[in-house]
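COURSE: Structural Biology Practicum
ASSIGNMENT: Worksheet 4, Part C
STUDENT ID: 0417
INSTRUCTIONS: Below are two proteins. For each, the amino acid sequence is given first, followed by its structure token string. Answer the questions at the end about the second protein only.

PROTEIN I
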Amino acid sequence: MILSTLQKLRPYPEVTQSLQRLRDAGLTLAILTNSTAQAAEAQLIHAELRDYFEQVISADEIHCFKPAPEVYHLAASRLSVEPAQMRLVTTYDWDVTGALRAGCAAAFVARPGQIMNPFGPQPDVKEADLGEVAEQILAVELGQG
């Protein structure tokens, strides 16, 4: 029941435009999830977001979960980049911490109710919604804005 509900969630209003903006800027987008790839694919298809992402990468492939560094390293390997060339975008404090500790950059989408631990490592991008995060990523990564 919970899984079928999760697979039917709609994206926040700014998500589609933000993903398009990042893709138009030449960035490669991928999903890194603790869910199975099949569950993530179903959710992306329902939300009409699948076409924005080149890959769906599941921690299930290596039988461990984020925030273990191996999961972020799996993503780097699948994308043929070094961890330092990746940026995780998330609404979860623990995921930011995992990505930073694995050598990746991170961005935090501070949706209502989501906060960063002030005593943990901090991302260089932190904004209230994905539109603002996308603009900051473009400014940091590409000197755009």
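PROTEIN II
(use this one for the questions)
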Amino acid sequence: MNEVPSPAQLRGPRLHLRPVELEDLPLLHRWDSDPAVAGEFQVPRPRSMREMERRFLDSTALTEEFGRLLAVRDDDTPVGLLSYHRVGYGLWSPAVNMGIEIAPEHRGQGYGSEAQRLLADYLLAAFPVGRVEASTDVENLAEQRSLERAGFTREGVARHAAWRAGTWHDMVVFSRIQGDA
């Protein structure tokens, strides 16, 4: 497993992405446990601080397999968390799936689009993958618009792909591929 080059290029007009650091864990612990951060389309993931520290210490590096980055405004205010993990379409067809959570007070300001564009650009340049994908609930129109503004193309609907609020929900699948702007 190869280390990813330094993510110094993960900088946009209003924010930058950086790897999660140990000092970020109290904030992430609060975000993981807060239903307002999860919003109506995700489920809160309450974990103990000890569990978060263990997971952090087990996987601090950004690798081809997995990574977590904070989206941070230029004034050093964290606005959200992005993550990615490797997926595949056959033995020799690696791709990357990414996701994002934006804190409620920072939603609707374009940070999600900017952060997702930065991460997708980086993943396509840093790894030998031809595809970066993301999905969201069919009812999450704000995230669908955000992904489109980040240069993703809507591909279709994955039926009954997510369990939430006691029922199955369809997910809209988006991708960016090598050569997309």
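ANSWER KEY EXCERPT:
Q1: The two ends are 28 Å apart (CA to CA).
Q2: The longest helix spans residues 111-126.
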